[in-house]
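User:
I study polymers; will you set down one protein's sequence and backbone structure tokens?

Assistant:
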Amino acid sequence: MIFKNSLFAFDVDGTLLNSYGELTKRTTAAIASASAQGATIALATGRSWSELDLVMEAIPEIEYAICTNGLEAYDRAGRCLYTEEIPEDLVANLVKTIRRSVSGVSIGAGVGRELYAEPKVIDGLVPGIEIAPDRIVNDIMDALTVNVRDLLIYHPSYVNKLDELFVTISETINDRRVDVAYSGLPMIEIVPAGSGKGTCLAWLSGHLQIEKEAVIVFGDGMNDLQMLSWAGTGLAMGQSSQRVKTVADHVIGSVDQDGIAEWIEAKLGK
């Protein structure tokens, strides 16, 4: 049976949560059924751990959460099992280099378990992701201490031209210790080299002694490419871009059509 001794990993925004930011009862019921049949349920999201409270509450079957696009992994109790960080000596230089090269950028940073950001970064957030007032800073350099997981680069002129911003930042950053990546938001992300949802998922499956072939992932965004490619079965939501669909093994229904529930129900013979 496909569910027994398997690991199901779900992206959140655009995969579990529909275009209204809602989690439907049909989807939660389907995930509960998969869990009852023996699947281990995990999230794999760009969100930080502190931004997952409502989803964790709505789906009690979730046992693990891969957060910040694979830079952290937590168990349901909130214990951090895995983490990656940008080298401490590199962070400030990255910020200075980006500012010199791209005028008008605003920058956010994952520091510890929290997200800090300059004010304009808020314009690029999706419903359900909020930054507390005390974590909004005029200059991100004031928030950069140790334990910096990632940097988020936002520019209002590139919201619909992320590929151009990606190329610009990639050409600007010349350090093998970091990678430039798509964040899942209208921003570009700088992360520790080799990191990503797929890397963390590979670690989690090893930690749980679950074979790669038994890992089934659901995603819709550019930040899901690595895990869709790595997993035994990668499922792209119907509204995904062609690039995401091409990497996936199968394309299922869109998030607004309850694509996850439809796929699980079909496998259960409902």
The mean pLDDT is 94. The chain has two domains: 7-83+196-268, 91-192.
